[in-house]
Amino acid sequence: MTATITEPDLFGSSPEPAGADWLGRGEVGIDLEALAEQYDPTPHPYRDAPVDWVHEELGAYMWSKQRAILESVQANRYTAVKSCHDSGKSFTAAQAVCWWLATRPLGEAFAVTTAPTWNQVHAILWREIRKARSRADLPGRTTLDARWYMGGRVIGDEDEQLVAYGRKPSDYDQDGFQGIHAKYVLVVIDEACGVPKLLYDAVDTLATNEHARVLAIGNPDDPGSHFEKVCRPGSGWNVIGVSAFDTPNFTGEDVPDELHDLLLSPTWVDERKRRWGETSPTYVSKVLGEFPDVSDDTLLAPALLRAAQELDLPGNALGQFGADVARMGTDETMVYRNRGGHVRQVYRAAKQDTTVTTGAFAKLCRQHPKVPMQVDAVGVGAGVYDNLRAQGLNVVEYSGGRAAVDAKRFVNKRAEDYWNFREALEAGEVDLPPDSEDEDLVAQLGSIKWALDSKGRIKIESKDDMKKRGLPSPDRADAVVMAFARGGGISLPTAAKDRAKRRGKRRRRSETADLMSKEM
User: Fold this and answer.
1) 283 lies in a domain?
2) Is residue 286 part of a domain?
3) Residue 322: beta bridge partners?
């Protein structure tokens, strides 16, 4: 609708031709609809329908729990999703970000994402965001440093606006999110268990109006995290749980064929049931999608293991091998190498004759003659150790049942070495592989329990006791601890040595420690 306004002839002169204004400049046209739209725009048709937007604009299919998550973000200010492994968490969060920015006016909407590490921000969630933006040909551009710009005619145009970014602020910097002011703010906390309470507090400073939304989503692997608190009843968050048994491959939900291959399978779940055990904290969190019941007798808390997985040490020391030997059955032969706290798997075998194992170990020793190998010489490992020693290789006999150096505090060497490993974790001196690289290792480490004997000494749960609880033998965990154990020419990490000195113990600086202090 266009209104034409004709001003009166103020000087009593004859009227100007029809359509001219009072200064004779022609018709004055005001588009009232455009003016109203500018100050009170019509809502986007999908502003309150995220599932329809994803279907129509992205051509993507969302299974039932994914739809429930998007609908919760639309309806609730705070949504928490505790989910099993491989259920499409990051994909769902990315669709939420794209829907949010595409259905709200430029300049009034902003999205922020965070996660415990930069790799989780950049390589996981923002990879999905970039794919979705490209697929739907959404406006603007996304960058490799996790930013989204809209507006402007060319890159760097002064009219171009930053509308979203991903970051990992300092764990102790509550100012990391300040300076964001928008009517519609969406915050996505990915891998929410690993994000500390201080960042949740910082997020609250963004969600100050009724239009703001917060989505915290992740695997519930740490019962001591702030994420666990927001998932409790009465927290004020709308909580959605996703178990492996809720997913289409278990429920029979009708979904496109290609989606079946993207979600966790019954085969994967059965394998983890055998490898981790149904009572394992890792099984409870990654399969059942629930926070594990981690009691005081759990040796290594989930938070410690997560921090070690996120640590990135250089790994340039010669270090030491730790080798746990198995033969037949379900146990595994494992070798890990510890290089200044950076520990990684270097060899794995199952159902293998000890003669073959001896050959494989000998090859490793010859490739790295200056790197000692601690070999579990109890049971089937005794023959392997004897053969390697007979060849003159750099091997050290390991027996967890021997007396501890601090025999008044520990029942045996195995208990002492596991406890020293725990202290190294607490000191931030252990770099463990991520789940995608070695998920079974963390599952085994997180399942081990400890106790005090009648003399008040620390003892570690035996392999036999773990099997009675329905858990597999901790072959990987034992090999890693052996790779950190004293006796093979490698010293404890610096902080561990300081702790030993405080206990009045003297430890000789090893040859490997000397090498670690030199340029390599």
Assistant:
1) no
2) no
3) 336, 374
Q: What whole-number percentage of the chain has pLDDT above 90?
A: 61
Distances (CA, A) of 119 to 114, 399, 437: 11, 39, 14
Closest CA to 69 of 84, 86, 50: 50
pLDDT at 192 over 70: yes
Q: Using alpha carbons only, how large is the chain's radius of gyration in Å? A: 31
Strands (E), 77-168: 78-83, 109-114, 141-142, 147-150, 161-167
**CA gap 284, 293 in Å, rounded:** 9
Are 58 and 157 found together in one domain? yes
Helix/strand/coil (H/E/C) assignment for every residue in 228-265: HHHCCCCCCCEEEEECHHHCHHHHCCCCCHHHHCCCCC
Asked whether residue 256 is assigned to any structural domain, the reply reads: no
- Exposed/middle/buried for residue 217 (C-beta within 10 Å: 0-12, 13-18, 19+): buried
Residue where one domain finishes, among candidates 225, 249, 273: 249
Does this model's pTM top 0.85? no
DSSP letter at 96? H
Containing structural domain, residue 31: 2-39
Residue owning tokens 């340039």: 316
